[in-house]
Each structure stands twice: as structure tokens, then as C-alpha cells.
Amino acid sequence: MANDQHDITLAELLIVACAEGWRGDGELLASGIGTIPRLAAGLAKLTHSPELLLTDGEAYLIEEPIPLGPRPEGFTLQAAGWMPFARIFECVWGGYRHALTMPSQIDRYGQTNISCLGADYDRPKTQLLGARGYPGNSINHINSYLVTSHGPRVFVKGEVDMVAGVGYNPARRTPGMRGDFIDLRRIVTDLCVLDFEGPQHAMRVRSLHPGVHFDDVQAATGFELLRAPEMGVTPLPDATQLDIIRRLDPHNLRASALRNNPPALRAAPRAEVPA
């Protein structure tokens, strides 16, 4: 398969950017929820972080990530260990997990919402999943997020409509509550990569995807962003990474992860003006 840069899709760029989030984590459980996050976890395991723990989604640890979609005839799971749900929880509350999930809203504090939309909690405009495991996950282990449509309806002004995932908002802490276990690492969007390494965990743009300007990202965000001093351009996947992605996703399910499956190189980048 040709690996011309113009054949690379934005979904493939996001997979690589998400995989970088697990670099240097060591031996912990990597949980990618969703097509792109799951492919990213597999890519990280097969490239820079072989010590990561992956599961088959049921009860076993695996060394070789399972391809997405229908499995080929004769496929046999190569289990590396037993990982029932009880042991998953041991990893969760022990801090030995880094999850990459896809919230519906995020605010300036990194608080996230997957529960419901609307100002009236008793009569929500849109009912989503419910808080599920977000509260416990966000105070016990590392979390990163993927947003496939960066806009002010996701990166909201003020606070999210319902705080499902805990962030760096001191006003939300009850007396005696510890906040030192909260560890939000990065947010990968269809425009950029963000982190929380600004003053008081302020959100910074760490890299811009090819063809995207900082002002584009700021205009699509409901609160002020900072520029990381080393802010650059998000790298395209290399040939090895593309081969692994395509092997892990032989049915090209990643093509439906972003609307219209746009290319990674969307337009000639404008010159970035230093702050």
C-alpha cells in the first residue's frame, strides 16, 4: 500500500498522536475506549511502549493487539495472562491505568461530561451515558481524552453541564478532599494536541495539526488557551506506524471515526506568528 503523505488520513494522524500519550508510562493498563483510542493503545504497545498491559476486552491480557472488526478464519487469541474484572478494578484504584476516552464536553479545568446536556439536571436537553466510571477513574489514575470535532460546544465556556470527570477546579473540592491523584495528561482533537502543563494546570496547545493555526483552535474553544513554548506541528505517521495501524484495522473502521474521513494534510499551513 502506498504511503504517500497525501494518502494519510487525519484519523491515522490522531491515532499516532494519541499513542504518544502512553509513552513513558511504564507497566500499566492502557485502556483505549473507541476506535481511534483502541488503535492508539495497540500502536503504542507495538512501538515505543511494549511494557503496556492490554486486554482482549473480556478476561485476558494480550501481547498482540486484536485487530478490529471481524476476525479472520482460524484466528486464535494468544492470551498472556488472566485479567478478570476484579483485577481491572485493582488497577483502577491503584493508579495503574491510563485511559483514553471521548467525553462530550470539557471545560477549562479539564472537568468532563458524558452524562447529560442542558442547564437543568432534572430535565436535561439530551441524556447521554450517565457518569458511569468517570468519577472514580478521574481521581484514581491517569486520563487523556480524544475529541473528534473541536468546537465551543465541546470545549465549553464556564463549566461543563454536569461534572462526570473530575478536573483541576478547586471550587469543586469538598473539605478534606485530596486532589493530588488527579492526572490529566493530554487532549487530542481534530485540530491540535493540548496538555494541562500551564500555570495552575491551565490548558496549553502543545502542537497544531498540519494546516491549522493557533487562532483556529482558539476560535473553536470557549475559554482562553495558552501556547506551549515548544508548540510545533503534530507529526505525520511514518511508514512503520501506518503499516501497524492498517494491520490492526484491516477493515478500515477508522475511516468512519471522523466525518468525511479527511486527509491529514488539509491545506498549506499559514505562518505561525509568535506570541
Outline the structure in words:
- It is a single chain.
- By secondary structure, this protein is of the alpha/beta class.
- The protein has a single domain, classed as Glutaconate Coenzyme A-transferase, CATH 3.40.1080.10.
- It is 20% helix and 20% strand.
- Strands 1-5-10-11-12-13-14 form a 7-stranded mixed sheet, with helices on both faces. The protein has a 3-stranded antiparallel sheet with strand order 2-3-4.
- The model has no long low-confidence stretch (mean pLDDT 93).
- GO terms for molecular function: CoA-transferase activity.
Would you summarize the structure shown here?
By secondary structure, the chain is α/β, with parallel strands linked by helices. The protein is built from six helices and 14 strands. The strands form four sheets. The chain has a seven-stranded mixed β-sheet with strand order 1-5-10-11-12-13-14, sandwiched between helices. A three-stranded antiparallel β-sheet has the order 2-3-4. It has a two-stranded antiparallel sheet with strand order 6-7.
What topology, given as strand order, has the largest sheet? 1-5-10-11-12-13-14
CATH classification class: Alpha Beta
Order of helices and strands: HEHEEEHEEEEEHEEEEHEH
Radius of gyration: 19 Å
Shape: globular
**CATH architecture verdict:** 3-Layer(aba) Sandwich
> What is the percent of helical residues?
10-25%
- Would you count the extended β strands for me? 14
Q: What name is given to the CATH topology?
A: Glutaconate Coenzyme A-transferase
Class from secondary-structure proportions: alpha/beta
Cα distance spanning the termini: 41 Å
Uncertain runs are: none
**Can you summarize the main beta sheet?**
7 strands, mixed
Sheet-strand content, in percent, reads 15-25%
Under CATH, the homologous superfamily reads Glutaconate Coenzyme A-transferase
| SS element count, helices | 6
**Nearest-integer average pLDDT:** 93
* Total of domains: 1
